[in-house]
Amino acid sequence: MYGGMGKPSILTLAVLLGPALIVFTALVIVPVFEAAVFSLYKWNGLGPMVEFRGLANYSQFIRDAIVHKALWHNLIIAVVSLAIQLPLAMALALIVSDRRFKGAMFFRTFFFLPYVLSEVITGVLWQFIYHPQYGLVRAIWAILAPAAHAPALMGNTSTVLWAILVVIVWKYFGFHMTIYIAGLQDIPQEQIEAATIDGASGWQVFRSVTLPGMRTSIQLSVFFSIIGSFQLFDVVWAMGKGDPVNAGETIVTYMYKIGLQRFNIGYGGTIAVCIFLICLVFNLFYQKALVREET
Amino acid sequence: MSSRIKLAILSFALAAMLLPTSAWASPTKVVEWWHIGTAANDKAMNQGFADAYMKLHPDVQINITVLENEAFKSKLTTVMQSGSPPDVFQTWGGGVLAEYGAAGLCRDISKEVKGTAWGNSMASGVWATYTSNGHIYAVPNDAGCITFWYNKDLLAKVGYTSFPTDWDDFLTLVKKLKAAGITPIALAGNDKWPAMHMWSYLALRLGGASLFSDTVSGKNAKGFNDANWVKAGQMLMDLAALKPFQDGFLGATYNDEAALVGNGQAAMELMGQWAPNVQRDNSSSKAGIGDKLAAAPVPAIKGGKGKVTEVIGGGGGYALGKNASDAAVDFVKFLTNVENMITAAKTSGILATTKGADVGITDPNAKMVKALVDKCTFFQLYLDQAFPPAVGGAVNDAVQTILAGTATPAQACAAIQTAFANK
């Protein structure tokens, strides 16, 4: 496995792994454990922790109606990402990877642009687009349906989440498209040519050659989609802090509100630990499922 | 490498390290000052204050950090949690300052201000906002109150030459404006607190000062479940039923609200003493509506116990961090002397707290708000600031649920009471 070098010495391991391990421990492992400690207290973040609550914060988490709402939103975001964003990204990747397509390079860059924008800029930009008094949506509405009132998408509890979902798909499809383009480049052109010569239709080529060949890319993009959905914060925050009445709340925006705006670091820690566990459990199951599939 | 060369290098390094420290360690007392005056004139004014003080006291070095309001709040929270606050910093008093004080993160300056000439240079009422359990943690520089800010021209269009003094008449005005195609009230529903002020003022007009003081002290066993709080929620719902707010107000921020009034697109807003400045900043002309703007107290409610002389308001001040030196305290004393407060009133439009600084207030609306505060019979700090953030946040959330129709006024008040009881 290590060629002729044999097993690496302890010193080599220490030199090569040490720095990364120290940074990772200090910035990831330690805070996770710290949050786990906070989560057992009622604490405002100031002064010493004195009010031990045991698992009371966790039972509050389980019963908290806003937590249910936020997690439900996260789930919807994950499902929409998988059901709409990924097929869209795949379709576009296939189009812009086609060698006969002259403008491919332009469209690749163009579709990737939203992903380059920072999350906060994206949020502010879409806030303008949706603005009920000056926004683009209103301007378009005035042309198409001048008689009807333009919808205030961010001011109506039943439309907020969908308005945010449009932004999420808009922002991240380019990223997934790029993963797929890279995946498509790994598929040997000969396989596709051979299949075509054998008389396979375009769909059959996609179904039996392209899709299996892109398994790793798809696994990767599904993983990013789901984890990303549960960690979603910036865009939602910039577009209206998950409000009105938590209509666009995600679990991370709720954690921020509780921990940093309400000074409830204890309960905020509980939410953080639960997000961590959700992501960890998903990760373990996903990895396991992939390993099982491969063997 | 011989040990002699090593020694030479080490001594050189040591000397290099010590050189700048010894140069800086001259008898300088450093005062770290964080303020939020990001506007060019505020920045220059504050730098001027610091320079003037350093000229008078060459042994004091004042380091200024200017931060935008929201950035300031989050950065201050972080340094507070790490236990190292700046020496002098912006505060709005109330529950947040009380929490910092209770955690031992602020310097108690009761000794310096209680009964002293400095303390007596301000009206006694202004200190309460910055006092917690008998400790004073900050010196106020600005005290005002929430009033309606309205567009005289738009009101004149529907036959109102002055602002209604009775709530029923106010509702009539709203209906007339609405009928004339004018947005009666601009409201930042997403930012929550502007709507919260509307609800808390209705409660104050219904239940009067005793409703507030008895709820806060716990003397009123029902707390926020008291019928007056609930009825205020009902009256807010009744107002909302007239659709007086701009389209999509539940998604609007305070800047949106200020822009609507500043552009003359909405007839009024309920806001604090800073309203004219923010309207100007957010208007497309950057000039606001100028002298068309007027301020008026929240109307009285027939049969309500509250009087129009009872106000909800607040302001700002200079808080002192736990490590603040006597030099820092003295600098705050300098900032709040009458000459500097006159300058501040002229430059930033603050409603200066120091007696005699009123001469710096020239705007008639600002004078009117100042008079309302000076003559008030009851002063309540903004409800979301008066309590610790956990309760203040619950108050804001609850009012939003009433306006969005996701909770009844009774349910919303019960949610506030739950947060209040658990504080």
Can you walk through the features of this model?
Chain A is flat. The mean pLDDT of chain A is 90. In chain A, helix 3 (65-97) packs parallel to helix 7 and helix 8 packs antiparallel against helix 9 (202-213). Chain A has 295 residues and is an all-alpha fold. Chain A contains 13 helices and two strands; from the N terminus they run αββαααααααααααα. In chain A, strand 1 (41-42) and strand 2 (51-52) form a beta hairpin. Helices cover 74% and strands 1% of the residues of chain A. Chain A has a single domain (65-294), classed as MetI-like (MetI-like fold, Orthogonal Bundle), CATH 1.10.3720.10. With 423 residues, chain B is an alpha/beta fold. Chain B has two domains: 25-142 and 315-371, Periplasmic binding protein-like II (D-Maltodextrin-Binding Protein, domain 2); 147-312 and 382-421, 3-Layer(aba) Sandwich (D-Maltodextrin-Binding Protein, domain 2), CATH 3.40.190. Helix content of chain B is 50%, strand content 15%. In chain B, strands 1, 2, 3, 6, 11 and 12 form a six-stranded mixed sheet that branches. In chain B, strands 8-9-7-10 form a four-stranded mixed sheet. In chain B, a hairpin with a 2-residue loop joins strand 4 (131-132) and strand 5. Chain B is globular. Chain B starts with a helix and ends with a helix. The model of chain B is unreliable at 20-25 (pLDDT under 50). The chains are: A mainly alpha (295), B alpha/beta (423). Chains A and B meet through helix 12 of A and helix 3, helix 4 and helix 17 of B.
